């Protein structure tokens, strides 16, 4: 988590803020949003590359705006958009606040803006060891009487991982 604004290799913070603001449109939003008009990451959140002494650092634009104009992001918190704004492109510090991930998700669900289709699970998760088909096979093998520890060996898993799969603690979405 970034605690203070990163500074460029040569130059002042004001120069970096000026570069940042070149990527912001403060005029087109009726809600007063400052819209990030440069590159974005998943979900539409603004992305900015900041030159550091040891290379470049990719940062979320709304987090940088919060740090510069409000202050450090408190430990255990994330930068959220207020309900009236709720626009991932917005970097207006008046529209930003810090809260827990749980509260941020609760507000998003209550407002009806949470996109359940962006939630990755199972084999869609980067680095997943199993596919949905393998999970079905694991459950079928255990149902047919194969011992969980033997199933675990076959798939390169721990006994606990197999237990979580068959008890539906994990891979709940696979039927």
Largest sheet: 2 strands, antiparallel
Cα distance, first to last residue?
A: 38 Å
Category by helix and strand content: alpha+beta
Helix content: 25-40%
Radius of gyration: 22 Å
Average predicted confidence as pLDDT: 84
What amount of the residues lies in strands?
Answer: 5-15%
For the record, the CATH class of the largest domain is Alpha Beta
Please provide a brief summary of the model.
The chain has 175 residues and is α+β, with helices and mostly antiparallel strands. It has helices spanning 13-21, 61-69, 101-111, 132-143, 148-155, 159-166; strands spanning 24-25, 35-36, 47-52, 55-60, 78-81, 96-99.
Structure, explained:
Strand 3 and strand 4 (55-60) form a beta hairpin. The model is unreliable at 1-5 (pLDDT under 50). This protein has 2 domains: 13-118, Homing Intron 3 (I-Ppo) Encoded Endonuclease, Chain A (Alpha-Beta Complex); 122-166, no CATH class. The protein has helices at 13-21, 61-69, 101-111, 132-143, 148-155, 159-166; strands at 24-25, 35-36, 47-52, 55-60, 78-81, 96-99. The strands form 3 sheets. The protein has a two-stranded antiparallel sheet with strand order 1-2. A two-stranded antiparallel ribbon has the order 3-4. The chain contains 6 helices and 6 strands, in the order αββββαββαααα.
């Amino acid at each position: 988590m970034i605690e203070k604004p990163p500074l460029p290799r040569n130059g002042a913070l004001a120069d970096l803020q000026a570069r940042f603001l070149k990527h912001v449109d403060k005029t087109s939003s009726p809600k007063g949003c400052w819209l990030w008009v440069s590159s974005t990451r998943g979900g539409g959140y603004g992305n900015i590359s900041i030159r550091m002494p040891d290379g470049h650092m990719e940062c979320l634009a709304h987090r940088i705006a919060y740090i510069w104009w409000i202050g450090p992001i408190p430990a255990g918190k994330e930068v959220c958009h207020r309900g009236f704004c709720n626009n991932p492109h917005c970097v207006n510090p008046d529209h930003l606040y810090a809260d827990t991930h749980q509260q941020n998700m609760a507000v998003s669900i209550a407002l009806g803006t949470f996109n359940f289709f962006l939630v990755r699970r199972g084999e869609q998760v980067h680095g997943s060891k199993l596919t949905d088909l393998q999970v079905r096979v694991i459950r079928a093998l255990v149902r047919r009487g194969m011992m969980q520890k033997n199933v675990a060996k076959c798939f390169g898993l721990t006994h606990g991982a197999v237990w979580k799969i068959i008890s539906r603690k994990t891979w709940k979405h696979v039927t």
